[in-house]
Specification:
By secondary structure, the chain is α+β, with helices and mostly antiparallel strands. It has six helices and five strands, in the order ββββαβααααα. The chain folds into two domains: 95 residues, 2-Layer Sandwich (S16 Ribosomal Protein, Chain: A), CATH 3.30.1320; 37 residues.
């Protein structure tokens, strides 16, 4: 049996993710694997943090005669036990695992003008006796009632003067209706 170390594609549409696996040479790309040796996520922004390899298991499979695919050779050369990008990878992994630093937002581009509303009277005025407030409220209700009664009486008088004794409507009443 010939063993290859190659990538197995996972993920979804437009979001690829790969596992680096030891596979029988005759198995399909996403088929049964002998062992998973690491991962590769091309969607990570930091290039050197994309690959994670299990160096001990890589060494074992290479020792028993496994062959690497071209893409895995590149990853192993960079991030293997004697890789060229090990320090950059360690720095990228440390940066990725640390807290996220958000940039300062700065001044907003647009600030709507606040509507000027007068301050509520309750906050600026000193506390008022409740009994005095209740008296004022009842007086204002009485004054509104009396004003309504007066306007109603005025309407009744104008209608009464507009009608004549025989039940007809005077010329003043008809002129008033036409104007409305």
């Amino acid at each position: 049996m010939s063993v290859r170390i190659r990538m197995k594609k996972l993920g979804r549409k437009h979001r690829p993710f790969f596992r680096i696996c030891a596979v029988d040479n005759r198995a399909p790309r996403d088929g049964r694997v002998l062992e998973e040796l690491g991962t590769y996520d091309p969607m990570i922004a930091e290039t050197d943090a994309r690959a994670e390899l299990n160096s001990e298991r890589f060494s074992y499979w290479l020792g028993v005669g496994a062959q690497m695919s071209d893409k895995v050779k590149v990853l192993f050369k960079k991030y293997g036990p004697e890789g060229t990008h090990l320090q950059a990878r360690d720095a990228a992994l440390a940066k990725r695992s640390g807290p996220k630093v958000l940039p300062e937002l700065g001044a907003p581009a647009y600030v709507p003008k606040a509507e000027e509303t007068p301050a509520p009277a309750e906050e600026s005025a000193p506390p008022v006796d409740e009994s005095a407030t209740q008296k004022e409220a009842s007086e204002s209700v009485e004054s509104t009632d009396s004003a309504a009664k007066e306007s109603e009486a005025a309407n009744v008088e104008s209608t009464a003067s507009a009608t004549t004794e025989d039940g007809g409507v005077s010329d003043a009443a008809t002129e008033e209706d036409k104007s409305e």
